[in-house]
């Protein structure tokens, strides 16, 4: 499949494929005791743990979701108050449903009834952050929450339909159709549905299409109508696949790759099974390139680059990696699939039981060098076979990327399985985080990244605030990327040129990273700063700074005659995983210069 390959499916062809295929689903219903007993035996203790968790969930009251809690986001900007009980409802429903499939004794059916009925009673399945006002039931909002809920409930009906109260099953069908399928067919005003001249899509496109179309595959009995849904999804998903660069890279980073492409794969599997392979969303080399993305952004075992709104401690879902490894014949992905138990709603917990990784896959050794041309992302690994070895990850790009942070020219230096020079990653999501004040948040501003600061100016936002790639390559001795960054800064920076060179030098015994920032001001002498961001500590000595992480240490040397250094600790930065102190080590020109440079040598420090 090319980057624009799915639009060829039209409703007539899809309906013919549906009629010609046996009506199959990828997972057995609970009545198929041979299949579920086989799963129970295969997962071993995990089944016992899931049943034990279901026993706890069965005794818990259904969390309440009053209107005032829904309005908390509008009134205070906080999301957690409503989203936490919203997720508990769905998480508990998932473990109860799967425990019933494993046991088939009926003891979890009443708690399932209470939870599923309560979810059907919710005035909206959307998150308050995506809807803000109380629900207008005449005009449902189809967002991430609504789409994921629709698919969860549809798979509940498939798994336990004969065991559920028939009126619950009918209610679910009616609610999924009213809230998701009918609006999806009738309207084109969902922002996530198509690229238009003023707006691009992102991971929402894949998640929402998968939730609605996936639910329709389970619940829609009119094949002509189902064909309309799938054809529309195919056209829309073309726009999602177009968000990846020519090498399969996503500017959203690996976290949202897992979320968006993960749901894309969920739908692809449902469509392929339902049409007996006649409709295939996973064909072609480009899909394989997208699937390989986590292999190419690996820093060390279990650690991935976290540019943009990606968590520092992100780990790709094992079921997704295991499925892609087998379905697309990419065995290296299996080595990244670390069994950790599935979390969340029914969609991924169910696949966690069936899409299981191999127990002892061969280890994966990444390439010495990886580069994404459209993203301008470079990865240079001193010794890929050594998980503790030095790694440089750097980016160019622009400041209107998906889940953008103002980070043109940012980089990470990873040593001993730790990003000692780090990207802060995702902040805590609030109303202001995605509002007009987004770039006042430390983690989203260029101040929160290891990028230059000319004349005290931070980077500006927008597509034209972009890096120009001047040079990139590797000759076996040095991996280098040279970027012109001047366009990323406002006019008051007075820049004629701001050139950044990042290089990994493959010199024994452990290599080193070189950073050179060369500035030329337009009209008068100015100042230049080259900060480094770390979660560790910084010890300043004459001509050097020792950066100390939990495991790794880096020595940064500079020319003290022309460059001074300051250390600034930014306290209580509001990150996704809690408030954290972040240290900025700021190298600066001692005096204003018309033309000048800051040169840093970043070396790993042994034990």
Number of E-state strands: 21
Describe the largest sheet.
8 strands, antiparallel
Helix amount: 25-40%
Q: What's the helix count?
A: 18
- Oligomeric nature of the chains: single chain
> What best-fitting shape do the alpha-carbon axes yield?
elongated
Unreliable stretches, pLDDT < 50, 5 or more residues? none
Q: How much of the polypeptide forms β-strand, as a percent range?
A: 15-25%
Strand order within the widest beta sheet: 11-12-13-14-21-18-17-16
Quote the distance from N terminus to C terminus.
Answer: 49 Å
Radius of gyration: 26 Å
Q: Please tell me the overall pLDDT.
A: 95
Q: Decide which structural class fits the backbone.
A: alpha+beta
Question: Mind explaining what this structure looks like?
Answer:
- This protein has 607 residues and is an alpha+beta fold.
- The chain has 18 helices and 21 strands.
- It has an eight-stranded antiparallel beta sheet with strand order 11-12-13-14-21-18-17-16, with no helix packed on it.
- Helix 7 (109-121) runs parallel beside helix 10.
- The longest helix has 24 residues, at 80-103.
- The radius of gyration is 26 Å and the shape is elongated.
- The two termini are 49 Å apart.
Name the descriptors:
607 residues, alpha+beta, eight-stranded antiparallel sheet, five-stranded antiparallel sheet, 21% strand, elongated
Summarize, please:
This protein is an alpha+beta fold and about 600 residues long. The chain has helices at about 10-20, 35-45, 45-60, 65-70, 70-75, 80-105, 110-120, 130, 145-160, 165-185, 205-220, 225-240, 255-275, 285-290, 295, 320-325, 330-335, 345-355, and strands at about 300, 305, 370, 375-380, 390-395, 400, 410-415, 420, 455, 460-465, 470-475, 480-485, 495-505, 510-520, 530-535, 535-540, 545-550, 555, 565-575, 580-590, 595-605.
């Amino acid at each position: 499949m090319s980057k624009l390959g799915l639009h060829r499916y039209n409703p007539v062809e899809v309906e013919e494929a549906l009629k010609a295929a046996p009506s199959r689903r990828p997972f057995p219903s609970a009545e198929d005791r041979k299949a579920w007993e086989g799963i129970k035996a295969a997962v071993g203790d995990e089944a016992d743990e899931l049943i034990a968790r279901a026993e706890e969930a069965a005794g818990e009251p259904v969390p309440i979701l009053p209107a005032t809690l829904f309005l908390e986001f509008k009134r205070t900007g906080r999301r957690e108050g409503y989203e936490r009980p919203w997720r508990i409802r769905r998480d508990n429903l998932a473990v109860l449903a799967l425990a019933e499939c494993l046991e088939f004794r009926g003891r979890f059916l009443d708690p399932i009834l209470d939870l599923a009925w309560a979810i059907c009673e919710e005035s909206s399945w959307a998150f308050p952050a995506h809807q803000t006002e109380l629900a207008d039931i005449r005009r449902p909002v189809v967002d991430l929450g609504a789409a994921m809920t629709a698919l969860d409930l549809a798979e509940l009906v498939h798994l336990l339909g004969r065991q559920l109260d028939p009126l619950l099953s009918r209610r679910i069908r009616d609610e999924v159709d009213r809230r998701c399928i009918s609006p999806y067919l009738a309207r084109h005003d969902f922002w996530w549905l198509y690229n238009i001249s003023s707006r691009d899509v992102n991971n929402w496109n894949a998640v929402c299409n998968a939730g609605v179309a996936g639910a329709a595959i389970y619940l829609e009995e009119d094949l002509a109508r189902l064909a309309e849904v799938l054809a529309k999804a195919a056209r829309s998903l073309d726009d999602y696949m177009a968000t990846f660069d020519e090498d399969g890279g996503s500017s959203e980073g690996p976290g949202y790759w897992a979320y968006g492409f993960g749901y894309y794969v969920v739908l692809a599997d449902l469509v392929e099974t339902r049409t007996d392979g006649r409709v295939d969303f996973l064909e072609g080399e480009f899909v394989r390139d997208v699937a390989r993305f986590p292999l190419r952004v690996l820093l060390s075992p279990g650690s991935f680059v976290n540019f943009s709104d990606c968590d520092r401690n992100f780990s790709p879902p094992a079921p997704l990696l295991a499925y892609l490894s087998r379905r697309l014949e990419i065995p290296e992905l299996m080595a990244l699939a670390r069994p950790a138990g599935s979390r969340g709603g029914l969609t991924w917990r169910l696949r966690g039981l069936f899409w299981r990784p191999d127990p002892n896959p061969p280890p994966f050794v990444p390439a010495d060098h990886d580069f994404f041309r459209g993203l301008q992302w470079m990865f240079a690994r001193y010794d890929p076979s050594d998980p503790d070895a030095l790694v440089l990850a750097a980016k160019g790009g622009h400041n209107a990327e998906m889940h953008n942070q103002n980070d043109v020219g940012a980089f990470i230096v990873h040593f001993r399985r730790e990003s000692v020079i780090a990207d802060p990653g995702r902040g805590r999501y609030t109303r202001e985080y995605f509002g007009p004040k987004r770039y006042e948040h430390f983690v989203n501003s260029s101040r929160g990244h290891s990028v230059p600061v000319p004349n005290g100016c931070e980077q500006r936002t927008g597509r034209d605030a972009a890096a120009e790639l001047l040079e990139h390559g590797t000759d076996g001795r040095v991996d280098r990327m040279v970027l012109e960054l001047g366009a990323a800064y406002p006019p008051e920076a007075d820049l004629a040129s701001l050139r950044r060179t990042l290089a990994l030098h493959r010199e024994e015994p452990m290599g080193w990273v070189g950073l050179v920032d060369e500035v030329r001001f337009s009209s008068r002498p100015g100042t230049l700063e080259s900060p480094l961001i770390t979660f560790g500590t910084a010890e300043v000595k004459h001509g050097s700074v020792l950066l100390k992480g939990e495991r790794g240490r880096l020595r940064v040397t500079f020319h003290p005659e022309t460059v001074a250094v300051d250390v600034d600790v930014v306290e209580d930065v509001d990150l996704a995983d809690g408030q954290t102190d972040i240290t900025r080590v700021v190298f600066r020109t001692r005096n204003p210069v018309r033309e000048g440079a800051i040169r840093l040598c970043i070396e790993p420090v042994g034990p």
